[in-house]
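Minutes, project check-in
Item: structure for the 319-residue chain
Input as provided by the requester:
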Amino acid sequence: MSTLLELLRDGRFHSGQALGEALGVSRSAIWKQLQLLEAEWGVVIHKVRGRGYQLASPITLLSSAEIERLAPGNGWVIKVLESVDSTNAEALRSIERGCPAPFLVLAERQTAGRGRRGRKWVSPFAENIYYSLVLRIDGGMRQLEGLSLLVGLAVMHALRETGVQGVGLKWPNDVLVGQKKIAGILLELVGDPADVCHVVLGIGVNVNMQNAEEVDQEWTSVRLESGKVIDRNQFIARLSEGLVAYLECHRLKGFSAIREEWEQNHLWQGRAVSLIAGVNKVEGVVLGIDHQGGLRLSVEGEERVYSGGELSLRLRDGS
């Protein structure tokens, strides 16, 4: 499939005969592959009698070699998949197989992409970024403090450098433009957090997506915000370099060195919010975060701190 897409990626018309000759298969086999690309992968292909086949819009496929060329200092093993249930799930399986960290799992599409609290992450083919970085953590819980918030800062800066205006953070793991979600983060941990463990930094970024009827919340993408088709390899390289810098700062100085910067970029700082945990709801005003990344709220004049993966933050009416 990827070889056929490489031939079509320029957005020009290609005849079935020419494609078949290039791949060493029949025109009928080319037709079947094109049908599969449309039916299962959602790739839109124009078919014009006498001219051949053309992608509705040019695409750039992910390339580990190109990412390594653009960000040569990371030293991560990069695994690029055409299709996977979820990059986080594949990362966890790779840990079980004994793959040495750090390594990065990328995919052109996900069939069962996951967000926080088990929500579906819509993952069309070759449009967005599905990114899971695996790190080995030695030395206990301090290395995990505020880690998801640190990742959010790296994503935010990569988006700004790509030309997205007004992008900021929402505690704990969302990156927004105004009220619209443009990226999300899902961290998963395996092993003993008091000793040696592995953490998967899962990142989903809406890059070139323009339509997504399945998404059940307000959303946007880099392309919608900037008006440009974005090279995902360049974005991944930029994001990875930013992550390396933040992770090194975190390793040397802890989350406290990054806390103030995160608060400065929290879009809901000082806002009236509802914090929801299952059927329970707490109303308060956002004061900031503590040294471990927990949310500081003013609740009936008293400061309280909340943390945990199942919490959900909402703006209160009129805030």
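Outcome recorded: The two ends are 49 Å apart (CA to CA).
No further action items on this chain.
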